[in-house]
Amino acid sequence: MTRPVPYRSTPIFDQDSLPQALRNRHSTKDGVWGVIRVVEGRLRYTCLEPFSETLLDPGCPMVIQPRQPHFVTPVGAMTMQVDFYNQPPDG
To answer: How many Å apart are CA 12 and CA 37, to the nearest integer?
Structure first.
């Protein structure tokens, strides 16, 4: 079985270039998984339903389920990227 590959990836964002849309409540569409990958620093991932917060750092990707409402908050200097998949990713 082949490993899923992303069909799209965001640019690498830093604490200043991270779009407001990612800092506010949003979700992926039906059938779309996201994987947040922190390159440097730390990022707070807030899941809204059910509520939870997770601090992400390099080597600790976060899989986002389809339609899962969430937002992210930089914790100091950081860089991150999001990969999008049309099937469940490995993480």
So the answer is: 9
Query: Can you give the pTM of this predicted structure?
Result: 0.93
What are the sequence ranges of the domains in the chain?
Answer: 8-85
Nearest partner of 4 among 41, 29, 32, judged by Cα: 32
**Peptide linkage before 19 cis (omega within 30 of 0):** no
Give me the amino acid identity at 62: M
How many residues are given for the chain?
91
Two tokens, residue 57: 């750092």
- Mean pLDDT of the region 11-25: 98
Contact by Cβ (8 Å): 80, 12: yes
User: What's the chain's Rg over C-alpha atoms?
Assistant: 12
CATH number of the 8-85 domain: 2.60.120.10
